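Reviewers of the previous submission asked for a worked example of the structure-prediction workflow described in the proposal, so we include one complete record here. The input consisted solely of the amino acid sequence. No template or homolog information was supplied to the procedure at any stage.
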Amino acid sequence: MNQREYPPIAIHKLNSHLMNLHVRDIDPCMREYVPIGKDVM
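From that input alone, the workflow returned the following structure tokens.
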């Protein structure tokens, strides 16, 4: 998100170059990590 890139498109662009992917989501107050897709990041 820092690069203003939509994650699914970025993953598609990287294709075979992607070796490791770490994904997490965070609440709007930036205090707690929540299940993927449940909040703002």
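The CA atoms of residues 9 and 15 lie 10 Å apart. We consider this example representative of the routine output the project will generate in years two and three.
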